Structure prediction request, 649 residues.
Amino acid sequence: MLLEVRDLHVEFRTRDGVAKAVNGVNYGVDAGETLAVLGESGSGKSVTAQAVMGILDMPPGKITGGEILFQGKDLLKLKEEERRKVRGAEMAMIFQDALSSLNPVLSVGDQLGEMFTVHRGMSRKDARTKAIELMDRVRIPAAKERVRQFPHQFSGGMRQRIMIAMALALEPALIIADEPTTALDVTVQAQVMDLLAELQRELRMGLILITHDLGVVADVADRIAVMYAGRIVEQAPVHDIYKAPAHPYTKGLLESIPRLDQKGQELYAIKGLPPNLMNIPPGCAFNPRCPMAQDVCRTDVPPLHEVDDQRVSACHFWRECLNG
Amino acid sequence: MPEQPNDPELAIAGTGMGGPMDLATSEAATLDKTPGPDGGGPQDRPRSLWSDAWRDLRRNPVFIISALVILFLVVISIWPSLIASGNPLKCNLSKAQEGSQPGHPFGYDGQGCDVYTRTVYGARTSVTVGVLATLGVSLLGSVLGGLAGFFSGVWDSVLSRITDIFFAIPVVLGGLVLLSVVTSNTVWPVIGFMVLLGWPQISRIARGSVITAKQNDYVQAARALGASNSRLLLRHIAPNAVAPVIVVATIALGTYISLEATLSYLGVGLKPPTVSWGIDISSASTYVRNAPHALLWPSGALAITVLAFIMLGDAVRDALDPKLR
Prediction:
């Protein structure tokens, strides 16, 4: 495994109380593999990614337990200075909104070149040449001229390409993409996603794709991890999950996708709201919204059941769920 | 307007804009190595916050007038002999309090010194004190405030309380107490006092704007790509946080000039033989009924100078504040 997150716990200590954002997450990615992390806002998918990258704001955030093994080393045991060298060079992150993720007062060439001056100690001139190469690689036209321009002079899709170029600059082993296409138009989404998938194949990187867009997931992911209230409730290969979900939450998510053959009917929605992270319900966190909930769900936290050797589900009734 | 409904082509062109098809074609067009509609051509010069601000300023009459006044002040404080041939310290008691006469347009003061020459030479003191005090205050304030805002935690709390303590010191009273023990005849004690009492103002502004800039996504993105703290602070945060500091510092420059005059008037600021508007206003005020002109000219020069710096600060704020754009 390239990256393995083991039993990670993260909480935020605020004035109003302790918000348990991540409660024992386990997932892993191999080189060349794409893991999609699905979940609603507040399910802990971004916080887990930030903990992996080491950019969690601490305080108020605090990692209270677990390990993050990257190429065999536990990142949580490294000193900050050693960790900084891993960031950008060994693992990199692509953010949701490329306009706000690029510094408005620096030209894109300066920002791309920074990767090489910081990590590789290159001269500014060499870094500029590298920046143009990168812009060519992510297919930004007229890279030689546009390298001097500022982020606001690019369209949304082009900006996201620049973010991708920055993340890929040093050919890291792992890329975490936090909703990379959410802020883009539908047509541009596909182009950016295709580009990302293509470069990932070329460089054999591990990719963690954080998203709530089930359409994107089906096309590019190898495996899916579904998160709810800071836990992974189901993890499985893509086609298995779409064929037959083994957790009622996954099932609810899949049923709430609009489908052409349901034209004119009411769209399914999961009842209720995600739990307050300062007050997660006892037992299974999903029980107040679950159509299959029984008494045991309100008292016992479901362990991760092995559905088969590639698949886990955190539901007491995963068999019933799997059989419809 | 009345023709539009009758012209089908116009109507189609009107409704066709901005649909998803346009976005698709525009993105495709950029892929086809032709500059997109977002202005990608090489002839399009890059624009930044600073070049935008400069363009705004050049068109603003308030900026032009105040900048010309300040330019004039700076020139005469470096080369006062350009417009005043006399010596400000060479006085003739027999002409004391005399009014305007040929060669001496502003008349004479109580000591028989030429008011015109002294007013011109006074600019040097005021501009020196104003500029140096502002530089000192801005440097100290933005370094301390910026670090507190960036690292937060204990340092921030300690610095914020120290700031509060300095804010509680009344400027004039503090000046009377601190400067009355100084015997030096130079401008340095006055500048030092202004820096000592002025930095908390800038420090607060710098702290606030660093905290705002720190929360920007691009700072986190740069961190995720391996930038160190010093690089984050100097390259990503400082350029995006410096605008409010510049604005406040420009306006403060005017108030430091008037503070110098206030302190000199009270007798704790600069002391003769230094030539300063504050000293001249102070001495002229004792015989204002006999020779009002000796009070009028240095006060007028002081008022115009302070006004020019405050107007400049206003213009700079308008140009740098993106919310007014």
Observations:
- Chain B touches chain A through 42 residues (CB under 8 Å).
- Confidence is low (pLDDT under 50) at residues 1-44 of chain B.
- Residues 115-151 of chain B form the longest helix (37 residues).
